Every structure is written in C-alpha cells, then in structure tokens.
C-alpha cells in the first residue's frame, strides 16, 4: 500500500505485516499528545507510548496509565549504543525508576559557590 500526500510525501508499507489471519487490513484514526496534556484523561482502548530516556518514573506512570485496555511501550534503541536486548531492557528499567524532581536555581548556585570555596581553600 502506498499513501501520497502533498505536504508529507509518500508512505509505503507492506500490508502483509499488518493484516489479520483473514487478510483484512484495519486502519484507524489515532491521536497524539504529550504526557503532560494526557494527565487526567481516560482513554477507551489501547495507548501507545514512545518512550525515551528523558522520561522519569512520574512521566512513565502517567503515560502508561491513561488507557482502559492495554499500554504498548515503544523504545528508541538508537539512544543506546549497545544494541544487546538485555542491556537495553536494564537501561530502560533504570531510566523508568529514576526521579527528575524540579530543582531551584538556588540549589545549583549553592553547589557552584561551594565548589569555588573549596578551590580557594586548596590554594
């Protein structure tokens, strides 16, 4: 199947990869949104999450808990140099456990000032 669009160009796909056992191809309209904008929603059906290492535990929870049926997570293996599946899984598991709490600028200034004062003491 080949789809043509004036703005986006063309898209070709092998329909055999997407057909059911009877050879029927089902295409439906879908919506995309950010994790932030999906908070508070309940989605009838499945959700598909494009996961990147920039997401933390809170983002992952929100992204994967909006649907009534199934949540499918797609990982970007290009983010990780090692393509070994067990390494990818463990890397993403660690990323999903992390917390990226908001930090105030003053926290960074205090660290920077402490580092400078330690340098001055060493001279």
TrEMBL record:
InterPro entries: P-loop_NTPase. This is Uncharacterized protein. It comes from Pseudoalteromonas prydzensis.
């Amino acid at each position: 199947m080949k789809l043509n669009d004036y703005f986006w160009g063309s898209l070709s796909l092998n329909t055999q990869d997407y057909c059911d056992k009877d050879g029927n191809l089902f295409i439906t309209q879908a919506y995309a949104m950010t994790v932030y904008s999906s908070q508070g929603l309940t989605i009838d059906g499945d959700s598909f999450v494009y996961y990147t290492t920039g997401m933390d535990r809170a983002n992952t929870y929100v992204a994967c808990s909006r649907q009534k049926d199934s949540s499918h997570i797609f990982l970007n293996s290009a983010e990780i140099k090692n393509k070994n599946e067990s390494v990818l899984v463990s890397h993403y598991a660690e990323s999903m456990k992390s917390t990226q709490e908001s930090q105030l600028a003053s926290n960074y200034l205090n660290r920077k000032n402490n580092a400078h004062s330690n340098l001055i003491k060493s001279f």
